[in-house]
Amino acid sequence: MIAVDNKILQLLQRHRSGKPVGITSICSANYYVIKAAVQNAKQKNLTLLIEATSNQVDQFGGYTGETPEQFKCSVLELAASLDFPEEEIILGGDHLGPNRWQNEISVSALQKACDLVSAYVSAGFTKIHLDASMKCIDDGDANISLYPSVIAERCAILCKAAEEAVFSSKNNTGLPFYIIGTDVPPPGGAKENHAGIHVTSAADVEETISLTKAAFKKYNLQEAWERVIGVVVQPGVEFGDDLVYDYDRNKSKHLVKLLENYPGIVYEAHSTDYQKKELLRQMVADHFLFLKVGPWLTYKFREAVFALALIEEELLSNKKGIVLSNLMQVVDKRMVECPKYWKKYYCSSEEENKLKRKYSYSDRIRYYWSDKKVNESFNRLMQNLEENRIPHTLLSQYFPEEYYAIREGKISEAPEDIIIHKISGVLDIYNYATSGGLN
Fold first, then answer.
1. Of all helices (H) and strands (E), which one includes residue 38?
2. Which whole number is the average pLDDT over 369-395?
3. Cα–Cα distance for residue pair 156/14, rounded to 1 Å
4. Which of 53, 78, 117, 148 is the most core-located residue (most Cβ within 10 A)?
5. Cα 38 from chain centroid?
6. Domains plus CATH for the chain?
């Protein structure tokens, strides 16, 4: 019998016994984000949960070019290089379903989605979000949501593929736990600022649980149902281009009370980026065990890189023999030349879109750091600043927190350490929230 991943089970049991603990879900494929997360987890002696989304990683490579097996290997290799134990890493798959194939008929899309889930489970991912909420081209009006019964049926089909894969795989590290839920934000972030945020009703949660449980039974997945530990709901948190909707626990009291009837289930919150740390702590106390964060981390990466680019300009623009990276110009040029990752999200005038491409909370710029020309520019920036020491006066101007960390000997002056420290500031906010305010 394949073992159950005790890290997740132990966390769930601690939480449901009354301890206000949770876990941060790092939803990013960015190298610097993952490195910062590994270093932070090692320093704080934490279990690390890293999730890949169906956009980032799939059986064909996703936009990162990596399959689930390749993504796993890249994470574990990085962790090993930092002497972080593999057994303290939980790998998860987010929005696993027909998302990538919505322009196909449902039969074709669902088959690819089953292959996707199988690839994740076979690679050893043990936290699986089954998300069949996306409509395919033969599912009728795109503006009308799928019937909950259809979503439940498709989730069961996906789960069956996962269960078959886990027992046939030689690579598996444990039985997967499942997250379900129909009230999910779209992968990649919201496409527009909302007039108001809909909070999931208790009735909708009960319907999701009831229908999905019945569908699992139909496909003889009763044992797998025992490993359904979470439901994705909308607790009223979201972000747009330049605003954040804060968590208001008064609006989610009905969700908290509902879980009295489901002692083995918790909530998963998506789009928790940019929330205040006390509000994140309240969310964990209100049974949002899993706090997903992604764009906030790459947003901080972008802030750090742009600040380094400004330092490069100040420091080296008049120095002979230096070729500047011109990174900010290069990345915006590439975004204009290849707009597919932002065009549906930024729908204003070109003047406004130019600002959004750089600074939006949605952080669609994160899709361009792996672009060949952008990557070459970034590498030039890093080389220039590694070969030419940054004066502390410029660090004080552009990186006040990192300036003091360097002065106090906590980090080095290396540009990479500066970037990672910037990202780690967000991770520390989540550490505080998921530890009940202790860490």
1. helix 31-44
2. 98
3. 28
4. 117
5. 15
6. 6-294+430-434 (3.20.20.70), 299-422 (1.10.400.20)
